[in-house]
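hey so u asked for the seq, here:
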Amino acid sequence: MEFLQPVRDFLACATPAAWLDAAVQDLPTLLQDHANCEKKAAGTAMNLLFRYNDNDRLQTELAQLAREELLHYEQVRELMAKRGIAYRALPAGRYATGLRQHVRTSEPGRLVDLMIIGAFVEARSCERFSAIAPRLDDELKRYYTFLLRSEARHFQHYLGLAEQYANEPIAPRVAFFREVERELIEAPDDMLRFHSGPPAPASVAA
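ran it, structure tokens below
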């Protein structure tokens, strides 16, 4: 799939094999957190719509993105229901917090950083859908393959918005967050989440 190459080029690393191994062994948690991620992505887009109400392009693109993310949320919930997986609360992972702690506080730096983070979140989701789909049953494989194009498009929308609203080249901030994102993806994690790192030794032993 040629359209995935820009996603792979954007990210500093591929998903560790250990994460893939753990994820396919705990599909209920994976699907639950995937649903949460879609809901949070829609909420993030809506919050940005209210905060930056005077940016026309942002309003148009993020309104569309919010609708798509909510549709994906509903679709994942339907998949869970078909499989008898009850929707339950899950503690948040460290991924989003690990990225957002570096957001600048003054504008337009804050908006630019949030857009860059959005691009990394969407790109990582796309990369993970691609990596895990071959390991899944036919239904989930079809669905995750279906999601690839929309997530790749979302990554490009966020990056384009960052470029539009920045008053300086964004390459240094992209490079900074690329390294932060790589560390979060490669560092061992105590909880399996859709954007978590490979399982820590203690969680494997458990």
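The chain has one domain: 17-193. The domain at 17-193 is CATH 1.20.1260.10 (Ferritin).
lmk if thats what u needed
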